[in-house]
Design brief:
By secondary structure, the chain is of the alpha+beta class. It has 3 helices and 9 strands. It has a 4-stranded antiparallel β-sheet, with helices on one face. It has a 3-stranded antiparallel β-sheet with strand order 1-2-3.
Length: 148
């Protein structure tokens, strides 16, 4: 009586390895660029956080009587200018730290891993009065994710 062996032949194993190699060659370029998308999403998230923090700080300023130089959000004093956070105050209000982002320039949040930080950033511009009137232009947020 013959003992029957079971398993895969060498040809079958080589074919599986070749097929996996071909699949990996097509899949790898699709996943290689995910880091740029992640950096862009981080910058967009920071911009949304800054917009929300600006609106909340402005609301707190209105409630406080439209004259304080600072408002307190979650126990943190936020410097205000014309009813909105200052360049340094917006980062405190939005609770953005320099752990994963470049915040060395006041009011600007850039991605640390981008090839050009100027093209992967959000820039906050403070609110300004219009002429000698009491009209205030709201702060602006310029988001650039082209170089992430």
């Amino acid at each position: 009586m013959k003992k029957q062996q079971s398993g895969f032949t060498l040809i079958e194993l080589i074919m599986v390895i070749v097929i996996l190699g071909i699949l990996a060659a097509f899949a790898l370029p699709r996943f290689a660029n995910m880091s740029g998308d992640a950096r862009a999403a981080t910058i967009n998230g920071a911009a949304g956080s800054m917009r929300s923090a600006s609106a909340i700080a402005h609301s707190a300023w209105l409630v406080a009587g439209t004259s304080p130089a600072q408002v307190t959000l979650e126990g943190t004093p936020i410097d205000m200018a014309h009813g909105y956070p200052t360049l340094t105050g917006i980062l405190l209000a939005a609770q953005i730290s320099g752990k994963d982002l470049d915040i060395t320039t006041a009011g600007t949040v850039s991605s640390l891993g981008a090839t050009d930080s100027a093209t992967c950033s959000v820039v906050y511009t403070e609110a300004t009065p219009v002429g000698t009137t009491t009209v205030i232009t709201a702060p602006t947020f310029v988001v650039n994710v082209g170089g992430c």
